[in-house]
Amino acid sequence: MVTASETNAVLPTADLQRLLDALSAKGYRVIGPMVREGSVVWETIRRVPDLPIGRRDQQEPGRYRVEQTGSSEIFGVVHGPQSLKPFVFAPREPLLQIERSKDGFTTSPILPEPDKVAIIGARACDLAGLAIQDRIFLNDTYRDPYYAARREGLFVIAVNCTRSLQTCFCASMDTGPRAKTGFDLALTEVDDRFLIEAGSEAGRDLLSGLSLPPASEDLAGEATRRIEACARNQVRQLDCSRLPHALYEAHEHPRWDEVAGRCLACTNCTMVCPTCFCHTVEETPDLSHQHSAHPRLWDSCFTQQHGYIHGKNIRPTIKDRYRMWLTHKLASWIDQFGTSGCVGCGRCITWCPVGIDLTEELPALLAPGVQPSIASQQMDNA
Amino acid sequence: MANPYVIHPATIVEKIQEAEDINTYRLQLVDEEARRQFRFKAGQFNMVYLFGVGEVAISIVSDPDGPEVLDHTIRTVGRVTKAIADLQPGETLGIRGPFGEGWPLEEAKGRHVVIVTGGLGCAPVVGAIEYIFRRRAQYGSIKILHGVKTPHDLLYRERFDHWRRAPDTEVLLTSDQPDKTWSYHIGVVTELFEHVTNDPAKSIVLMCGPEIMMRLGVPILLRQGIPATAVYVSLERHMECGIGLCGHCQMGPYFLCKDGPVMRYDRVERWLGRTGV
Question: A21-24, long-range: CB within 8 Å, 24+ apart, which pairs?
């Protein structure tokens, strides 16, 4: 691993197409943020104007808007609903080809086709999420061959954040706003220039091919100042210092009832989360009942079926499921994987239709509980 | 590393009806190489697959010394098990496994073994009992306490009779809804816990069944001086992948398909009985 400071350069924003072309020349399909139906999604990027130039996203609990700014800023949009997760842990993918035969069946794995994908515009929180998913799918007791195959072809160009959303709290989670590891290249947009840094051999290789002049100390300093200001401007934070135990101890806290009264169990938070990894496998034979692709799809702990076991449900109520999700994300994840399951991206806050905010819920759950009756009265009066 | 999702076809060589809605399927892997390589520990489970229907986690009840034929006792209770119930010998199921942590049978050597089971919970421990009997001299006394709701729920009746006749072995059965045919104890299994062992410090407990039995029963055993670190419980949750990745089987910080299903009591004590865990 190369440290960022070993290789850096300056790239005028007007020359960004050179980077896209260099990636294409190396056989990468370039994916970047693109405005679609009022949101920003990952799409194939061929030309710089495909990117959301002159746009900014405004995010608040339960609210997402993409606005025109009229500026020439290229990476003004921080993020859309998708993290990097769908590129490595596919929302739906076949696992096996199962063929019925006269006296039984045969199975063979369907591994993803090798695909070189370069993603431009990943944020530090997304990289932190990717690192956590790597830990789960590649470095646990079992190695997931499907994840491994997708991960191998991935080239990541991070963009350091110089603007925080209302919903961001990566600074308090120590995952951003600067991308520290896990990227091949990192860009920091400073007016009409990018500071471009290599974070891997592949990144350094690509960067040297661009023959760019080294970045001045002034540019690097200005980039750092803007990233630091971005961290200071974050209005949300999460204090995880008492976790996991304090949340384990809060299992009977009345706040769970209160938040369950607002939660719709819609699963949005788990779908947009960069780290949620629950999945299920479907057995879906074709109409001839001769072939089955045995697909794996994302699951959510908010569904009825998640806790089902022969005739009963371990988590029948929304309270049980919200508690499962938050306790897993912030507490038991630490015991399981040595890290929080939260990277501070704020997506679960934005994309929650009723704006449930875990940075509000956690402190409330760790504070001494009030009587549920009083809490509900306060709700009624609000 | 081998792809942990690959399913190996297995032929039903025998189907034994244990009760109206419970059958034991004796399965043999079709692929000779897979059959030769298959090794398991008592208490581990397989994902059993039926084409077009899906998979279900089922513990292996047969003797780990004879892994050529794998016995799975299945209660007809859900979508997959209902479809499996229609199958007959000669038909094909699939197997992925074995998965999970089994019973601590090495650690149990030299100790008195107390086995406490309730209902169909006795299935995952049957292989462990067979294993111990094959190495009888290496273990102390054996006490098997088994509770059922009704006499109708008593499976493996002839095995209990067989074990009862073995030296230095005690088998106590109880039913809390007995009928006239019931000649054993009446009540719940925890009522059999008085003096389960004369030497609690040198005893080990293997427990399997409803969680309420563990929650109410284990404290009684601990009061008799059996250390919490010598009590093992086999736990059940929704298991889909068997490899700790799909997320369904969590109990607190544990993935029961990978860290369990057999867990040392002191590790799970705080999670047992918590609602929604």
Answer: A22/A206, A22/A209, A22/A210, A23/A118, A23/A120, A23/A155, A23/A206
Chain B residues whose beta carbon lies within 8 Å of the beta carbon of residue A317 = 276
Which of the listed residues B50, B75, B99 is the one where a domain comes to its end? Answer: B99
In chain B, how many domains are there?
Answer: 2
Residue B143 has what pLDDT?
96
User: For residue B177, what pLDDT is reported?
Assistant: 95
Q: Do A299 and B238 touch (CB under 8 A)?
A: no
State mean pLDDT over B149-177.
92
**For helices B123-134 and B157-164, angle between their N-to-C axes, nearest 10 degrees:** 30
Of A98, A323, A328, the CB nearest to B250: A328
**For residue A6, what pLDDT is reported?**
54
- Both B120 and B235 in one domain: the answer is yes
Alpha-carbon gap: B176 to the closest alpha carbon of chain A (Å): 22
**Which pLDDT does position A371 carry in this prediction?**
54
Q: Is B275 within a domain?
A: no
- Is residue B181 one of the residues assigned to a domain? yes
Residue A377, judged by CB atoms within 10 A of its CB (0-12, 13-18, 19+), counts as: exposed
Sites in chain A below the pLDDT cut of 70: 1-6, 370-382
Report the percent of chain B where pLDDT is more than 90. 87
Same domain? For B127 and B169 the reply is yes
Whether residue B52 and residue A310 make contact (CB cut-off 8 A), yes or no, is no
Q: How far is A373 from chain B (nearest CA, A)?
A: 21
In this model, does residue B9 exceed pLDDT 60?
yes
**In a shared domain, residues B32 and B53:** yes
Please give the residue range of the domain that contains residue B38: 8-99
B122 pLDDT band, cuts 50/70/90, is: confident
> Do B20 and B78 fall into the same domain?
yes
As for the ipTM of the complex, it is: 0.93
- Name the token pair of A110: 């369907």
Rounded CA gap, A206 and A22, in Å?
7
- Which is nearest to B169 in space by CA: B145, B204, B200? B145
Average pLDDT, chain B: 94
| Helix intervals (H) in B185-241 | 211-223
Residue of B nearest to A289 (CA): B52
